[in-house]
Description:
41% of the residues lie in helices and 14% in strands. It is globular and about 60 Å long. Helix 9 (266-282) crosses helix 10 and helix 11 packs across helix 12 (369-385). By secondary structure, the chain is of the alpha/beta class. Strand 3 (101-105), helix 4 (109-120) and strand 4 form a beta-alpha-beta unit. Bound molecules: pyridoxal-5'-phosphate. Pyridoxal-5'-phosphate is lined by residues 30-31, 83-85, 88, 110, 156, 160, 186, 188-189, 209, 218.
Amino acid sequence: MSDRSVTATADDGAPDVGELTPPDRTLMGPGPSDVHPRVLQAMSTPLVGHLDPSFVEIMDEVQELLRYTFRTDNRWTIPVSGTGSASMEAAIGNLVEPGDTMLVPTNGYFGGRMKSMAERAGGEVVTVDAPWGEPLDPEAVADALATHDPDVFGFVHAETSTGVKQIDVPDLTAAAHDHDALVIADAVTSIGGVELRVDEWGIDVAYAGPQKCLSCPPGASPLTLNDRAMATVRAREEPARSWYLDLSLLDDYWGEERAYHHTAPITNVYALREALRLVAEEGIESRWERHRELAGALKAGMEAMGLGLNPADEYWLPSLNAVRVPDGVDDGAVIDHLLEHYDLEIASGLGDLEGEIFRIGCMGYSANPENVIYVVNALGETLERLGADVDAEAGRSATLDAL
Ligand SMILES: Cc1ncc(COP(=O)(O)O)c(C=O)c1O
């Protein structure tokens, strides 16, 4: 062995960076959630090439597992390389052509991101309004569809910024289809944790992220399109503006041919496969039920402590609990205290709800009884310490009773 390979000398400018030792946090924020140990293990297995026959088989398996999780038979169901915003931009950037009109909601942060992406795709954007903290009203959607006659209608199934679940989805999709509009659903914070039925509910395109209720690191993000949506993509007059996310090109890799388009993030695909295998083992409906039960215990604890949830029960989102900040405390101080003293991550509000709510996730592997008890105790103790008028003990008992 040559001696030349070895140690960096002190004076060659090499940065002196130590071994990786991230803190051991409990992730109960809006995502990422704690990753399942089996997923971490899958990520440490050796790479194969992205065109290796064994990887082609893995791709098929991931597609099959994704169809199960989305509750769809859509042939065109893939993980997009990148975070949830990549699958989001793949959906919007391929369906919206210059001159097309897209109807988007204004009731949360991610409706705003839909707007930005549709504009960048060259679309005209029109909006349907609801206050932050409320779902869209099907009548308002029907009116907006009648007024604007859009080509595409997008809505957020689980709004991470407000903790609101969009209810009445089949009514929204039926209204859109009456006007020949294609429907795109943001399912980033619902997939694998909250009831989502792509085919039964008439959703044409749904995109998601792996780092929430699937408890998988970000990097490969689920997307599904039905035949009608894919036909629209193929019939575009001009190519999608993003080469990387052009679904008609990605078809060469994920479709029959399995030809090179870009080097797939192999490790992330392994991770997603394992995360989805966990979904299949648990059963999708049991998994939705687990999220409802555990987040229900968390909610009971918050309410017994004296903290209200921001959304009404009817559209409460189990995977993301928007808890109102009590009078007299600074939300940032609470969040910092939890991180510093409990190694616990929760988040503050965004946009119209900044300073008004805490956002407490209950997602995937993080949605377990120990974590729920931990977050209720830690938040109760912290709020009492910082002078808020809450009853931490009542919160703790209510959560334990509910569990
Ligand atoms: C509802 C929703 N849509 C889209 C995104 C974007 O995903 P990412 O941050 O993984 O790019 C997020 C991320 O939190 C989200 O919560």
